[in-house]
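Protocol step 4 of 5: obtain the predicted structure for the target chain.
Materials: sequence only (see below). No template structures provided, no constraints applied. The aim of this step is simply to have a reference model before the mutagenesis design in step 5. Sequence pasted as it appears in the construct record:
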Amino acid sequence: MLSPFASIGGEKMKSTKRKWFGILYTLALTGFTVWLALDTFVISHVYGEAQAAPEIWQSTAEETTVDLITYRVQDTTVYVADVQLADPDAMAAVLAQDAYGRNVTETPSSMAERTGALLAVNGDYYGAREKGYVIRNGVLYRSRAASGQEDLVIDANGDFSIINESDVTAQELLDAGAVQVYSFGPGLLSDGEILVDENDEVGRAMASNPRTALAQVGPLHYLFVVADGRTAESDGLSLYELAQFLKTLGATTAYNLDGGGSSAMIYQGQLVNHPTSTGRRSSERSVSDIVAIY
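Step 4 output (structure tokens):
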């Protein structure tokens, strides 16, 4: 006959094993979660090199005109670069570290400086998402569509159009002559008509935000726009307010790029606006790409 103490000892041993198993399982789960977060948001994954910069980037500066104007709109400071090009190739994309990948980032100022850009704004931060078309300087990097995603397409003539990824494949866009495709959104203007309403917003962003937008006024005539926000000095704009403002400037097609702490404009090597994520400190965020003028 077994002693009752043996039974108690056996239960204690089982309890200890269960306790250690629980601890080890928790540690393993925590470690995996940390690794997954680092892999998703921190660890760089380079999937390919960026296309070399066209020679024309360094040969058209004397034919490019940029007028930088500061506006005050809805208690918000808005910087507008009115750009007129002689050649559509003078507007190009730059990828961070000259590479395509996830968590491959660089500040807009750094990208503009190393490529000799006259003017630049942040792009669509494609590396923060796994879906959405990515075509840069005529190269297709990502063809995975996002349902309902609106993209900005820039063709070989430098003309803007807005498409929905549900209606066309990335390869079809490339075959039709797309040189750049940005997949942040939404579209703001098409044929001079506002595409958003007062309730539209990007994800969970606040109604008033720092913003970056590209717009076309006419042939090779563009507006590069950045609005400061989240500070006592500058509230920021809603998508509808941004669209209204661009329409008053004569834009016919306009598109919303990555905003918030990513919003940055560089002109002649100087940071023009005051980027901020929290409103407490001004600093540039490292991003995946810029749109640049040469």
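Step 4 remarks: The two ends are 92 Å apart (CA to CA). Confidence is low (pLDDT under 50) at residues 32-41, 53-60.
Proceed to step 5.
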